[in-house]
Amino acid sequence: MEIRRELGVHDVQSCIQTWITVDPQGIKIIETDTGEMVGACGFVKNNEDIAFLGLYCIRSKYQGYGLGIHVYNAAVEHAGNANGALNAVPGKLELYRDKGGFPVVETEFKCLKNFTTDHVDPRNLSSAIPKDVSIEAVQDHHLPALFDYDYSVVGFERKFALALNCQEKKSRTYVAMKNGACIGFGTIKTSCLGAGRVGPLYADDSAVAEVLLKTLIISLPNVKGLVMNTVSTNISSKKFLKKLGIPLKEELTRMYTKERIDVDTKKVFALFDLNLTPF
């Protein structure tokens, strides 16, 4: 987390701990003989078929010595034959495509990094939700419905990670329920730079997503700004960001080692994490 803060990245320590629990060997580090961490690279197995590459970093004073390739190779070896995915920063697409083993380039959307260090006013968001829908703080009895809904959105099982996600410190998770079924859910956490980071945020309906987002922001006061990483094809999420005054900072290109993961991005209002899982 010190290295990520040094790079100005809004990662969340508890989120990384969740995915280390899911895949204890998923993040590799490189360190000096005296035990100082030089850098890291994760290729976390979400399951046996899907892995995600991220957290690739080298401490600034050790950059330029060719150390990164060693920790990168160790992470790639761990992923094995899983379909790997990553979000390439600008200028790195060709490197990952031609030399990194990620030949499949997503052309339908970009992943968007949006954040501000300024205070955001949740009153700018609507409180109106469809009839018979309730927004509730997540409890154990909600989890089966939440798991089913997540599977319906992303297409693969993440029960263990989601259960841990709901237990993380300095975080809040809310579900949208209708007639006993989950029709959306969202989480907000505190980033290593002190901002509130929303993700995941999924819903069938944009009105439900907006109220979930408003509820999440209200539930975690006294943070230094807001982070919300989105997909370019979700028009409603762009409207929410505009209402809150959160600017776009960077566009990332999704890439795969084998094949695209096809998801209805209209239901994805905020990504779970840019470095640990596809959506």
TrEMBL record:
GO molecular-function term, one example from the UniProt record: acyltransferase activity, transferring groups other than amino-acyl groups
All copies of domain N-acetyltransferase, residue ranges: 1-136
Name of protein: N-acetyltransferase domain-containing protein
Native species: Trichonephila clavata
Gene this protein is translated from: NCL1_44233
